[in-house]
């Protein structure tokens, strides 16, 4: 529960939500709330950063990454040799048509699948060489996931969904609850701690998913079409939230997306086609007008 002090009358206010006016003297609390939000973001920056990782410039490196699948009697080449370096603290978007291999690349970087050939290094560790136990530890401690369909557990509250990964990381209950509340405050859901997913809008559920992705202070957040099931305005808010976390907390964000608004906040855009990197563009090299078509609004 957060505690605030009214700047006008000194009234002490305890709440799990947002206070706009003092209940005693009706003074405007906007300045106090903004100061509290800045403090939360600063605290989040300290918690999210992982000082134990290597200081190498690249947090993700793939070399000759290939993945094939057997479908009936046919072998399908999903990836045909991907070489990609992702800088620490970068915001990277992966784009490509359906069947291009971007989701396969996404899953290999996240340790959700293993390559047929080649290597994927996270903090200079080859993911393909890890045992099942080591891979689970790496996913739990190093990588946070955000999915298009939210993937929240329906019978759990927002706070319980956010703290669930902390249980697997062995965090104590008091620390879990404190951190879970802090993360939900960070994404603007301090007043929805005990709400279950069906009691939240799509945008609010995705905010819970964003908070959950940060549960164990990951160095990387993987966002798979995070705005795909959201309306335009809510999607924009989620994108701005991810960019804010990227800039203020230094967390590396890798997103598989078709959303041009996501591209607008990216540092680089990787285009995948037929299982290969077609081209890599820097944001400043792209002439992108959000909300226009053919030069018309």
Describe the structure.
With 297 residues, this protein is of the alpha/beta class. The chain has a domain of 179 residues: Rossmann fold. Helices cover 33% and strands 26% of the residues. It contains eight helices and twelve strands. Strands 8-9-10-5-11-12 form a six-stranded mixed beta sheet, sandwiched between helices. Helix 1 packs across helix 5, helix 4 runs parallel beside helix 6 and helix 5 crosses helix 6. The protein is globular and about 75 Å long. The termini are far apart.
Labels describing this entry:
alpha/beta, 297 residues, single chain, 6-stranded mixed beta sheet
Secondary structure tally, helices: 8
Mean of pLDDT: 85
CATH superfamily of the domain at 89-111 and 130-285: P-loop containing nucleotide triphosphate hydrolases
The assigned structural class equals: alpha/beta
Strands, count: 12
* Amount of beta strand: 25-35%
The major sheet is characterized as: 6 strands, mixed
What name does CATH use for the topology of the domain at 89-111 and 130-285? Rossmann fold
Uncertain segments:
47-55, 292-297
Widest sheet, order of strands = 8-9-10-5-11-12
What's the order of the H and E elements? EEHEEEHEEHEHHHEHEHEE
Amino- and carboxy-terminal Cα gap = 45 Å
The helical percent reads 25-40%
**CATH class type of the domain at 89-111 and 130-285:** Alpha Beta
| Shape-level CATH architecture of the domain at 89-111 and 130-285 | 3-Layer(aba) Sandwich
Q: Using the CA coordinates, give the radius of gyration.
A: 21 Å
Question: What form results from the Cα inertia axes?
Answer: globular
């Amino acid at each position: 529960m957060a505690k605030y002090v009214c700047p006008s009358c000194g009234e002490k206010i305890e709440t799990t939500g947002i206070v706009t006016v003092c209940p005693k003297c009706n003074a405007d609390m906007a300045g106090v709330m903004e100061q509290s939000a800045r403090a939360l973001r600063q605290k989040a920056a300290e918690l999210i950063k992982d000082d134990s990782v290597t200081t190498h410039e690249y947090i993700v490196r793939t070399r000759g990454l290939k993945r094939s699948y057997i479908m009936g009697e046919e072998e399908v080449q999903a990836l045909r040799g991907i070489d990609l370096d992702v800088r620490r603290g970068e915001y990277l978007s992966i784009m490509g048509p359906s069947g291009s291999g971007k989701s396969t690349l996404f899953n290999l970087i996240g340790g959700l699948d293993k390559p047929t050939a080649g290597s994927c290094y996270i903090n200079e560790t080859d993911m393909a060489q890890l045992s099942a136990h080591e891979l689970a530890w790496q996913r739990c401690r190093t990588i946070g996931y955000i999915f298009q369909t939210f993937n929240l557990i329906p019978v759990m509250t927002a706070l319980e969904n956010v703290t669930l990964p902390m249980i697997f990381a062995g965090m104590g209950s008091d620390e879990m609850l404190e951190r879970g509340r802090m993360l939900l405050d960070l994404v603007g859901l301090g007043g929805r701690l005990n709400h279950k997913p069906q009691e939240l809008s799509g945008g609010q559920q995705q905010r819970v998913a964003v908070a959950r992705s940060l549960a164990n202070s990951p160095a990387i957040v993987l966002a798979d079409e995070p705005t795909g099931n959201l309306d335009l305005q809510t999607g924009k808010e989620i994108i701005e939230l991810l960019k804010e976390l990227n800039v203020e907390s230094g967390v590396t964000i890798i997103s598989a997306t078709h959303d041009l608004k996501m591209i607008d906040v990216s540092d680089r855009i990787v285009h995948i086609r037929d299982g290969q990197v077609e081209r890599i563009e820097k944001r400043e090299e792209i002439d992108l007008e959000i909300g226009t078509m053919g030069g018309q609004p």
